[in-house]
Amino acid sequence: MLAPPFHLLRKKIRSSTGGESPPFRMASEAYFMPPRPGGNFIGSARSNSSLTSRTHLVIQEIERLKSQNEKLKRASGQFDLQRLPYSVEQHAADTKARREEIKVMIMKAQELDLAFLLDATASMQDSIDMVKDKVAAMSAGISQAYPECTLRVAFVLYRDYDDANTDLDSKGCNLTSDFEGPQSTFIRALSRVRAKGGGDAAEDVFTGLQRVANLEWQARNRLLVHICDAPCHGTQFHDFPVEKNGEWDNYPQGDKYGRNIDTLLMQLREHCQITHYYFCHLNDGTKKMLQEFKKAIGEPGWIEEAHFRDINGIPQKVVTMSRSTISRTLSNLSGIGSHAHGTNFIPENVIPHRPNWATIALLNGQQYKHRWYHFLDGLLQKIANREALEVEEMDSLQVQIATHPFSAEGTMRWPYHAAVIQHGQPVRNMVVKRFKVPFGHNIRQVHSKERYLGQMEVQTVAAHMAHEFNNRTSGLRGVKKVEFTLVSTLQVGSKIYNMEKFLEGNWIRYSNNAGYVNTADYAATLQAFTHWTHERSNGLLMVTDLQGVMQPSGNGGRYMFWLCDPSIHCTDVMRFTRTNLGDAGFRLFFSSHKCNDICRHLGLKASDNGYSTVGTQVG
Questions:
Q1: At 343, is the pLDDT very low, low, confident or very high (cuts 50, 70, 90)?
Q2: Interaxial angle between packed helices 376-384 and 449-473, expressed in degrees from 0 to 180 and rounded to the nearest 10
Q3: Which is more confident, 379 or 557?
């Protein structure tokens, strides 16, 4: 344990000197007495012979105990509640460097290599012409959301084994930024392609996949769009009638050259580092093939698919996929900094269910949280002044923490089930989170106190903003309540965690911090909330990257949003963790945001993207 406080030392010193010790006021005065006339300032008791020997002993004992306390603090990892303040000069220098880093990071995150894998057999001429005619429009659609996007496009062709392959078939068109206008490299090459051949009903898809691997991929975002109307050879990949196999598939046993789909797809994902493989079904004949492709790669979400009865719907979907790919990359990059493409973390064994608590040790922990500010303006003023929010030490508790995380889906942190016991209250089901450690990184730096305090601060500020937003919208019928789980910082031994309420329900990501909007599960309330936080703070900050569950609010059958792990963009880019993209983050949000009826009722300034009629009609 730590050494006793100084006011408890009197008895100890008395026994060591054989008599009554002087009041400790004298020891304090020895340090802070004004200079005597003609004498020196008394800054060290040892250098002044006029002090009594007993006072010397008191001061020596204080110094010894102070030193002992500091050593014990360091040895026990005692939690320091306050973060060191920035000097003005250092803050200015770091801010300049961080803004330049964000600028470069966003520029690189908007690089996109887009390749079309095209079945060039007799039935596919309309699809080939569609790509040629719409590639410029697709580029414009991507640039509308990401004006700084650097786009390169390519196409790769395949037919069937017995079709004559021209030089154009073999090479296609490598990735190029010259794709607009009839004389561009991409358009001239694709204009020479004529759909022909095919023979039986199955095609040589594997050769197309091999050719994709030979493209000169460079950009951080790499999207493959595959358009075809027939599966590859082998009964594993199609449901052709058995009696028709010799007629519909001349190679029912599989690939003529013995190639393996697992190897081909792994080469695309691991070696070429293709971000997403997007497959366009033109009929139902390719459904089984995609099922086998997904089974072979084993990576949820890497292959995405959609069915098109009308090929004219493909360009808009390509634009949406491209925007989504860039948005995810921006979000991931801002979380982990400027690491190389494809950052890998030290793996953990994920066990999704709750553990048997009887087998988990009960540990002592200390919990810390930010104080609650009753006036939002006071909180915003502290942020504007670059002041730290006060951290309060809560009562100690006992906690059981699962040995393994229950999910790997978090970009930056592992979540663990936890059971908390405190002051005879019922056991609380909580979640504690630890940062993932990238390979080659210093573990102490990854788990620094600063990172956990910063994460706690983000969610605390988001909760304050939501509290006032709910008060502001309580009279508007149809607007759902927004709540954030309150995050604390938990120290158990030498380990630090963030701890919060465990949310039950169907998890949905509604937006991220790079302009992505979930249009399938569009939440008008949350889009308006993010917009409102920017105006309410007079452009100081913006709460975004909204994700969580919907639960009954207990108020007349209404539902509410329970959210966690948000991001905050702020003009002070040295605050609110590395997911803070500052002014660039504001621009990314407004590049995709369409104001809705809630924005209008709140009197928010209309965005340049027009008005969305999707979502709640506010009363």
A1: low
A2: 140
A3: 379
Closest of 196, 174, 184 to residue 125, by C-alpha = 196
Burial profile 183-194: b = 16 or more Cβ within 10 angstroms, e = fewer: ebebbebbeebe
Give CA–CA dist 505/520, Å, rounded.
Answer: 18
Which residues of 447-487 form beta strands (DSSP E)? Answer: 481-484
Question: Which of 169-183, 336-350, 526-540 shows the lowest mean pLDDT across its residues?
Answer: 336-350
Other beta carbons less than 10 A from residue 90's beta carbon: 11
DSSP H stretches of helix in 362-435: 376-384
- DSSP string for residues in 435-453: E--BTTS-HHHHT-HHHHH
pLDDT at position 613 is 57
Q: How far apart are CA 388 and CA 394, in angstroms?
A: 18
Tell me the residue length of the chain: 619
Asked whether residue 362 carries a pLDDT value surpassing 70, the answer given is yes
Which range has the worst mean pLDDT, 139-143, 340-344, 499-503? 340-344
Three-state DSSP class for residue 395: coil
Backbone angles phi, psi at 222, to 5 degrees: -135, 110
DSSP 30-43: HHHPPPPTTS----
Q: d(Cα 559, Cα 557) in Å, to the nearest integer?
A: 7
| Best CA proximity match to 303, nearest among 279, 338, 329 | 279
Cβ contact 549:505 at 8 Å: yes
Strand, helix or coil at 558? coil
**Average per-residue pLDDT for the chain:** 83
Euclidean distance between CA atoms 352 and 382, whole angstroms: 40
**Chain position carrying tokens 């990854």:** 446
pLDDT higher than threshold 90 for residue 410: no
For residue 511, the 8-state DSSP code is B
Task: Of 420, 450, 617, 604, give the one whose Cα is nearest residue 529.
Answer: 604
Kind of pairing, strands 508-509 and 547-552? antiparallel
d(CA 363, CA 253): 59
pTM, rounded to two decimals: 0.71
| pLDDT tops 80 at residue 13 | no
Q: Which amino acid is at 129?
A: D
Longest CA span, the chain? 116
Residue 516 near residue 324 (C-beta atoms within 8 A): yes
**Strand order across the beta sheet in which 276-281 lies:** 173-176, 150-158, 111-119, 221-228, 276-281, 303-307
Which residues, 6+ apart, have CB-to-CB distance to 273 below 8 Å? Answer: 217, 222, 341, 342
Which residues make Cβ contacts (< 8 Å) with residue 618, sequence separation at least 6?
476, 477, 478, 479, 597, 598, 600, 601
Under DSSP, the state recorded for 200 is S
How far apart CA 321 and CA 200 sit, in angstroms, is: 32
Q: Over 60: is that where the pLDDT of 221 sits?
A: yes
